[in-house]
Description:
- By secondary structure, the protein is an alpha/beta fold.
- The chain folds into two domains: 128 residues, no CATH class; 253 residues, Vaccinia Virus protein VP39 (Rossmann fold), CATH 3.40.50.
- The protein has 14 helices and nine strands.
- The strands form two sheets. A seven-stranded mixed sheet has the order 5-4-3-6-7-9-8, sandwiched between helices.
- A hairpin with an 8-residue loop joins strand 1 and strand 2.
- The protein is globular.
- The termini are far apart.
- It comes from Bionectria ochroleuca.
- InterPro entries: Methyltransf_16, SAM-dependent_MTases_sf.
Amino acid sequence: MRPVGSPLPPTSSLPPLRTLECSTEEQVFSALQGLSALYCPFAFPLDNASDSHRKLLSAADTLVDSGYVSATEGDEDDDCDEGEDRLAALRADNFERSHAERWLTGFIARSEMLECFTSEDSRQRAVDQASWVLESFFASTADQDQQMQEELADYAREFSFPITKDDSQGPMTVDIRLNDGLAGMDSSQPDDVGLQSWGASIVVSKLLCQEPARFGLTAASLGPSPRIIELGAGTGLVGLVMAKLLPRLGISNPTVIATDYHPAVLENLRSNIKTNFPQLDEAPIEAALLDWASPNLEHPLDAPADMLIATDVVYAPEHATWLRDCSTQILGPDGTLWLVATVRQNGRFEGVSETVEAAFGATDRPAGKDGRRLTILHAERLEKSNGIGRGDESGYRLFRIGWA
């Protein structure tokens, strides 16, 4: 018999995604708090919650310490052991966790359309809590990294971007296949796949293929053998697009280096490169470790880049500063940094995109070898595409950054 008050398995407690529009605000918060109590009971902060939200969340408060409330005082010790064992088994159940991940991602994607919330603050609070629980699944520990890496191969996703060229050749596309494990979702779920490779990387990949000259992707601008480095590559979508696109634009011998910092991400990135270039002994793209805060510029990062590109990589004020300082060291004297910052007007990342302009406009920013500094030369807004990106994304800002 289930101990009184213990969290139910997600498969039996979460309302179906297709019926979310019929749920009440209380039901939504009850579902979210059940997941919080199960997977991260100490993690989600309630300091900023409104009184109404505190009441909605208070039902599970007694679950935090032990995961259940004893049925009788005399059975307390035995019930505690039983409750802890059951919780440990439930938390370790990959099927239940995958169901919870799919539900959380589907909820975030649908949140803007749900009418059950009494205010925008309430809606954002729910999105924040869902995001918090989802992110807690990927805490950076060795065991979780290994488990995450084992699961990445299960989430394949395919992209096809049409190429626009001013010549007489027939239709061409850049086709990419990814182990898209960023959100850890089932790729058969339509609401999940839009969140695995973040919206900015998909939007930019499409633009690179549609308007390559807009980004200076021409043989006249780059020459036959340019060096292009993707910063914060994640699944490597943008870098892989570059590696397949450039030869079709007459740039015969490009070097593309996709960089990231997290070991599990780098391992998945290398797997994605192998997936997309299985027949080549030496793929035109490689993965490399790069820590923006302390860059190690050994091979293959030991030569200046002709172009840097980074999409949706700024999540804290220091990120823009680290990115600027690192780019100052690795961008060549005639190079360009293309930076896309995702605009989020609510939640924990509200206003973070604005730190890009502050970092690249600071009077004390470092100078390159010739005394020039990286400066924003042009900025424009890119619109969010339907069905792509998280619910908290309102659009993107594209920055062209160069020496001045």
